[in-house]
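Predict the 3D structure for this chain.
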Amino acid sequence: MVHGEFESMRAIYTLLPDFVPEPIAWGTYDTIPDTHFFLCQYRDMQSKIPGPDELAARLAALHRKSKSPNGKFGFHITTYGGNLPQLNEWEDSWETFFTKSMKWALELEREAKGPTAELDVLTPVILDRVIPRLLGPLESRGRSVKPSLVHGDLWYANSGIDAETGQPLIFDACCFYAHNEYELGQWRPICNKLGAEYLAAYHSYIDISPPKEDYDGRLDLYKLKFNTHVSALFSDDMTLRKQ
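Done. Predicted structure below.
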């Protein structure tokens, strides 16, 4: 888990060293083999959410500057959202990658909370109908999706303001190379505080992917992935299934 965070933070730091604390090391205690550590630079932060334009400018720069090492979607190591692993196997197609990722999240959620008849009905609809309808057009009729490095869990609590510079900082990353708009799906759940003004600021730097008429549906689909993963994380909270 800490290895995945180290590699995630290092990937961001390599591109934008002022956007994250510098990762220094990770490892396992010699005398306590089931205890691990992740060490990074200390940055004093204000307990405030970065402003829309400031955060959007740096996030857009991360998405633009990043380049997948093999041109594919995924990551070279497993990363974790909370204590649950993400499926990061390399794929040529964003639709294929996201379908596998969504299926994995649904399986984790079912394992955490148990099966339901409703979930059994909805799962094949999501995987076989909704995802192809919303993501297929991104990679058809001459369109393509650039694999961009995403933070992977960029809700407001994983951001702050550097007390010295006044600039945005992000942390607790679980990176992989994805459609850049995937990052914005995390701004849709009710628990988040990065609202419409943050989306508007982001798209002042990077335009909405075509076809634009599918934008809201794509973000709702990406939101579903985040909500499903969170529901799997908190197995005792059944209300999360209703988000």
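The helical segments are 2-15, 52-65, 94-113, 117-135, 182-185, 196-202, 215-233.
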